[in-house]
Amino acid sequence: MYSQDQLVQVMIDAMEKLEQGTPGLNKLASYLYQADKALSYYLDELDKYTQVKKPTLEQTQEAGKLLEQIVVLVFKGLKGVQSIKSFQSAGPQYDLLVSGDDVAWLNVCKLLYLNTDKRDIVVEAKATKSPLPDKQFARLCSIMDLNLTGSGLGIFFTLNGATGFPKSGSSRQRAVSDCRLRQIIFHAKTNKIIVVLDKSDIFELDKNGTLIQIITRKIRDLFELSGLPTIPATEFCEIDLPTHLKSLYDS
Questions:
Q1: Residue 204 to residue 232: CA distance in whole angstroms
Q2: What digits encode the pLDDT tens for the residues 36-69?
Q3: Helix, strand, coil shares of the chain as percentages rounded to 5?
Q4: What angle do CA 195, 196, 198 make, to 5 degrees?
Q5: Close Cβ partners of 133 (under 8 Å, ≥ 6 residues apart)
Q6: pLDDT tens digits, one per residue of 195-241
Q7: DSSP letters of 95-162?
Q8: What is the pLDDT of residue 15?
Q9: φ, ψ dihedrals at 14, nearest 5°
Q10: What whole-number distance in Å separates Cα of residue 156 and Cα of residue 51?
Q11: How many CB atoms lie within 10 A of CB 52?
């Protein structure tokens, strides 16, 4: 009888034999992220902070540390991680730099549209109440382009997203600006990807598989520019069809 970890390893080994785009690859992908059991406690603490209407400076600073702790626990649960660092370099401060070299990590890269020579992930945690401003987005673009040249994916963990990105419940976005515009231009220039997670995304990360599902949906949306926020990981399929077509899918 296999243990759970042994079963996961068998699945990872099988994934190595699958080509990009194989339907089976998507079904196995969720096993590459096993949510840490400690996450629920930290997410509950973050939820308490988000309920505070006017946080003090001290509360904001504590929330920043809390979000960084959540980020470490999240990436601790990603299979194949062999390098996880947070440090002040000769230049900028890096909240988290994550990478790996084995089969599991290469399969993570395959799912996240990353080339193997650009397989590092740079993570920034921003616990401010306001949406991420363009200058912070530009800073990460510069770091990935000039400093961490081996990085292919940047991820912002935020509470309220970033300026210019579609908001939940809003009508379809037909124009781009601010951070959203910079995301598109940076990708066109460098072929590197930066995505933004907000609190609704973060609160899903205590479930297995969700990290990969959320990130891949946000990457696809960068390619497609649907103008709508990405759906939760708990929804299996993304359906964005006009009424006369959706009725056929639902029947």
A1: 8
A2: 999 999 999 999 999 998 899 999 999 999 999 9
A3: 50, 15, 35
A4: 155
A5: 162, 163, 178, 179
A6: 999 999 999 999 998 999 999 999 999 999 999 888 887 776 777 77
A7: EEEEE--SHHHHHHHHHTT--GGG-EEEEEEE--SSPBPHHHHHHHHHIIIII-TTEEEEEEEESS-B
A8: 60
A9: -65, -35
A10: 21
A11: 12
Q: What does the pLDDT read at residue 169?
A: 80
C-alpha 74/C-alpha 155 separation (Å) is: 12
Q: How far is residue 133's CA from residue 76's CA, in Å, rounded to a whole number?
A: 28
In this structure, what token pair is assigned to residue 42? 């930290």
Length, in residues, of the chain: 251
Burial of 15 (0-12, 13-18, 19+ CB in 10 A): buried
Stated pTM of the model? 0.87
126-161 core/surface letters (b: 16 or more CB in 10 A; e: else): bbbeebbebebbeebbebbeeebeebbbbbbbbbbb
- 250: tokens are 């639902």
Q: Are the C-beta atoms of residues 21 and 216 closer than 8 Å to each other?
A: no
> Mind listing the pLDDT tens digit for each residue in 65-88?
999 999 999 999 999 999 999 988
Distances in Å between the alpha carbon of 174 and those of 186, 198, 203?
19, 21, 28
Q: List the structure tokens of 198.
A: 């907000």
